[in-house]
What we know:
The protein is α/β, with parallel strands linked by helices. The chain has helices at residues 18-33, 52-64, 80-92, 103-110, 161-172, 213-223, 239-248, 279-284, 289-296; strands at 5-8, 37-42, 74-75, 96-99, 156-159, 177-180, 190-193, 203-206, 210-211, 228-232, 255-259. Helices cover 32% and strands 15% of the residues. Helix 6 packs across helix 7.
Amino acid sequence: MSRIITRFAPSPNGWLHAGHAFSALFAHDFAQRQGGTFLLRIEDIDFTRARPEYVQGIFDDLRWLGLHWPQPVRFQQPHVATYCRALRELQRLGVLYPCHCTRRRLRQKTDAPGWPHDPDGAPVYPGLCRTDAVAKDDAPCARLGEWPLREPLPPAWRLNMHKALVLAERRLGRSLSWHEEGTGPAGEQGTVHANAERWGDVILGRRDIGASYHVAVVIDDALQGITHVTRGQDLFHATAIHRLLQVLLELPEPIYVHHRLITDEEGRKLSKSAGDTALRHLRANGMTPEHLRQLLGASPPS
Length: 302
């Protein structure tokens, strides 16, 4: 078996909290128990929200937890051109199309009672811009670097989910799936059917930053040789999109290991935006890494 490589990949758009600590410890300990390698990656592709102080905070918090990782750390912003090449390959395959829909136009269509929603709770795209006709000059990331954006706004780029699934399943010779060594929200394990169609025509090329998280994460995992993607169950359903992109872009298939989420007293997932207690505040108030491990139920590697 190949050497185990895991990663912890936070976004520097806020301070890390206890949920991040559990995820980082989980990935680190999973690799260490099997003589593998734990990598840190900074997912800063969304430059509109990333901040240097949050990057430094990630380093400080993880070192306080006692974690170590090889250098250099991979950042996403220097590799935007790589992600854009992937988008153009999807366009070449005929599974990507430009979308000029505004939020207002989408709301007018999807506010109807009974409109379907994706696993994250957002309305499924109604296909208003889906077409086989793409202008010759249209290309993902064509206006990348123009900030602030000015009229006319560049299009977003959506995956034609139906076409993508047909192509992927033709390549595989079977339906899309992944191997789960962790546990999904409903106890899913082993071979999991990837219900990518539940997401509809997802945005893969954003107007403001170019490639979306979905594209960047599968490219990074492949380039870094990640063998086991360990992460929280909140990303379990997104794995269907990631497996689809891996097949379309002919990337290696990692094993997925989803873990439980850390919640508050009301069962709510911890969140940066909700202002949950940050690790830096816990540390300043006398919390020790050992005590935090005990509170989280994160046992040190044997």
